[in-house]
Design a protein that fits this description.
CATH class of the largest domain: Alpha Beta
Distance between the termini: 42 Å
Order of helices and strands: EEHEHHEEHEEEHEEHEHEHHEEHEEHE
Radius of gyration: 20 Å
Number of helices: 11
CATH architecture of the largest domain: 3-Layer(aba) Sandwich
Oligomer: single chain
Strand order of the largest sheet: 11-8-10-9-13-14-12-15
Number of strands: 17
Helix content: 25-40%
CATH topology of the largest domain: Vanillyl-alcohol Oxidase, Chain A, domain 3
Largest sheet: 8 strands, antiparallel
């Protein structure tokens, strides 16, 4: 990793993780809004768009890609920025695994680290799902620009029943501002919680540890996601996903995306977003349970899909489900660029079933691959 402190640009390999990058940057008073899970590599994370720390306010991580260095299908090494090979930079911000070159280096804009991070969490019985989710939806759009808001359906440590847990994480310069940022949530949260932890001091390192615990090694996963339409009855649409019995390790996640979702996106491949992001992670231990757990995840998503605008590349499996990952205009432009830069299909594509999409790339349509189930 190389840091140009004057320009606030860090140059990093795609193989580095967000946790590794922030460990490097934190020693220099800086940070990057990388992925929440500590072992996620920057290459895939950024090519998919990058739903990183406080994405609802700071925007997509790929927006901070100032330039890339790539190897093309013909073996040429190119530097790509806004004035040189700009179409490849456009594609690198949201193309996903079908990016038609191999990235050697990302050049990323970084921000100053925040001296005070506090979190508040409220654990409710799942029977209070509707009241709690309604509150989250009401308070999220009104919140300050440095606070991340999620709601999780999970079985908390030390408990034996599924709960709904709203989480508020704020990034501030001092303790007073951090406490003020969480005050509305701490004051207005619904009654009936099992327990609450308010104004808890935390750090990126601590948050990475929590994320690692939520995604245990040695387990089997089926993940899917959707951008719920802005005019949908979100509470009702997600009710089954949040309340249906799943394995202890499984969880469902709602991520508030407004106000970022209401701002015009820069000109880049990433072009799909709404105010409401949902992801489902079915997690289990034994191979014998594969079919049951995968079908459960599919059945839940089938009920949600009719209310979805599209999906995020980062929590998608193209061998199981395809959907709208881009606006139609950006999808057409992206697949044209794939054919321009890799006419023979030298670079790895989207790896759908049988790699059928090939050089043509993914069709921007909803389709379940039933043979995988």
């Amino acid at each position: 990793m190389d840091l140009d402190e004057a320009a606030s640009i860090v140059s990093v390999s795609p193989s580095a993780t967000g946790a590794e990058l922030n460990e490097f940057l934190s020693k220099r008073g800086l940070m990057f809004g990388g992925g929440h899970c500590p072992d996620v590599g920057l290459g895939g994370f950024l090519l998919q768009g990058g739903m990183g720390w406080n994405c609802k306010n700071w925007g997509w991580a790929c927006e901070q890609v100032a330039a890339i260095d790539v190897v093309t299908a013909t073996g040429d090494i190119l530097h790509c920025n806004s004035t040189c090979n700009s179409d490849l930079l456009w594609a690198a911000r949201g193309a996903g695994p079908g990016f038609p070159a191999v990235v050697l280096r990302f050049h990323l804009r970084v921000r100053k680290v925040f001296a005070h991070m506090l979190s508040s969490a409220f654990i409710y019985p799942i029977s209070q799902y509707r009241d709690v989710m309604k509150w989250v939806l009401e308070i999220a759009p009104l919140y300050g620009r440095d606070t991340e808001i999620v709601a999780v359906s999970v079985t908390p440590e030390g408990m034996d029943k599924r709960c709904i847990v709203p989480l508020f994480l704020t990034f501030q310069d001092n303790e007073e501002n951090a406490k003020a940022a969480l005050a509305d949530a701490n004051r207005s949260r619904p009654e009936g919680f099992i327990t609450e932890v308010v104004n808890k001091p935390t750090s990126l390192a601590a948050e990475y540890r929590d994320q690692a615990n939520a995604n245990p090694p040695g387990y089997r996963f089926a993940a899917s996601n959707a951008y719920i339409k802005n005019d949908a009855d979100v509470v009702s649409v997600l009710e089954e996903a949040f309340t249906k019995p799943l394995s202890r390790e499984s969880f469902a996640l709602y991520f508030a995306m407004s106000p970022c979702s209401r701002k015009p996106l820069p000109d880049m491949a990433l072009s799909m977003q709404t105010d409401h992001y949902f992801a489902l992670y079915s997690i289990w231990k034994s191979k014998e349970d594969d079919l049951t757990c995968k079908r459960l995840a599919r059945d839940i998503m089938l009920g949600i899909e009719a209310h979805a605008e599209g999906a995020y590349l980062g929590d998608a499996d193209f061998q199981v489900r395809k959907t709208r990952f881009w606006t139609d205009e950006c999808a057409t432009k992206l697949m044209d660029l794939r054919r321009k830069w890799d006419q023979q299909g030298v670079i790895c594509g989207y790896l759908d079933v049988g790699d059928q999409s090939g050089t043509a790339g993914l069709a921007n349509v909803s389709e379940w691959c039933e043979e995988k189930w």
